[in-house]
TrEMBL record:
InterPro entries referenced in this protein's UniProt entry, alphabetically: ABC-2_transporter-like (IPR010390)
A Pfam family per the record: ABC2_membrane_6
Record-annotated membrane-spanning stretches: 28-52, 64-85, 121-138, 150-176, 207-225, 237-257
Transmembrane helix recorded as keyword: yes
Keyword terms of this UniProt record: Membrane, Transmembrane, Transmembrane helix
Originating organism: Embleya scabrispora
Protein name: ABC transporter permease
């Protein structure tokens, strides 16, 4: 029998993970439901904020909900696809990475396939439903350009968050207990992207909003979709730069990943 190619091997790893996670169906259903509940709670937080204030950073409920829903969907999709890379610090500490390195397959796809968490599908499904509901509520005046923006933004946002996940995980090559550092940029980045950039101090906006690119995930696309002018004076074309920002982030993340793999020294296990 012929040996499977790389793509077939990764697909088999993912299928094996899916089979193992769905063996106990009730437990799996509870996991999916609990993941989905998290998205509803996050949306409820935005509503609670607007119960005590009519605007946030100069924006009304409709605009902030669009920002929040775009950022949540992009993040949840990235979390489903590459979120398990955050376990890299555990692999390094326990020496599990050694066993992955000696296999005749690429290391990064192996890590992504090995711990694929199907339960996160529930969160993606919930955030996609929420995004549709929010877009209907926002009563957007649709044009071809805005429809294209809506198709582009979640994919570019997903790619950007995925690069942030990978960069955060790479810290483990130099500092094993890096979980909290990585979470500050991944889950913290999601919270940053869910609200208008106008509520943050100038330094945070420059570093995280436009340096890391988080303002291009929810804030700038929501401005374009709702026709709201940027109070900070940013041009409309900024909303279209999210794919370029995602490509740059992936270039940096892969360079750091390769440097980290070369820097890694076995635990001797």
């Amino acid at each position: 029998m012929a040996e499977p190619g790389g793509g077939q091997a990764y697909a088999r790893l993912v299928r094996a993970q899916i089979r193992s996670q769905t063996q106990y169906r009730l437990s799996f259903a509870i996991d999916v439901a609990s993941c989905a509940l998290g998205t509803l709670v996050e949306a409820a937080v935005v509503l609670v904020v607007f119960r005590v204030s009519p605007t946030v950073g100069g924006f009304g409920l409709r605009e902030v909900l669009v920002m929040s829903a775009l950022a949540a969907f992009a993040f949840d999709l990235a979390d489903l696809l590459v979120g398990n890379i955050e376990r890299l610090s555990t692999y390094v500490r326990k020496g599990t990475l050694d066993t992955i390195l000696i296999r005749p397959l690429r290391v990064l796809p192996q890590l992504l396939a090995t711990d694929f968490a199907l339960r996160r599908v529930g969160r993606v499904a919930q955030s996609s439903v929420l995004l549709v509901a929010v877009l209907i509520y926002a009563d957007i005046d649709w044009t071809p350009a805005r429809a294209l923006m809506l198709a582009l933004t979640p994919l570019a946002g997903c790619a950007l968050f995925a690069a942030v996940f990978l960069l955060g995980a790479c810290v483990a090559f130099w500092f094993v207990e890096s979980g909290e550092i990585a979470n500050a940029f991944t889950y913290g980045g999601k919270e940053f992207a869910r609200y208008p950039a106008t509520i943050y101090p100038g330094l945070l906006r420059r570093v995280f909003g436009y340096g890391v690119g988080l303002a291009l995930v929810g804030y700038q696309p929501a401005l374009f979709l709702t026709g709201h002018a940027d109070p900070l004076g940013g041009p409309n074309w900024l909303a279209w730069t999210s794919p370029a920002a995602a490509a740059l982030a992936w270039t940096i993340a892969l360079l750091v990943w390769r440097t980290g793999i070369r820097h890694y020294r076995s635990t001797g296990s």
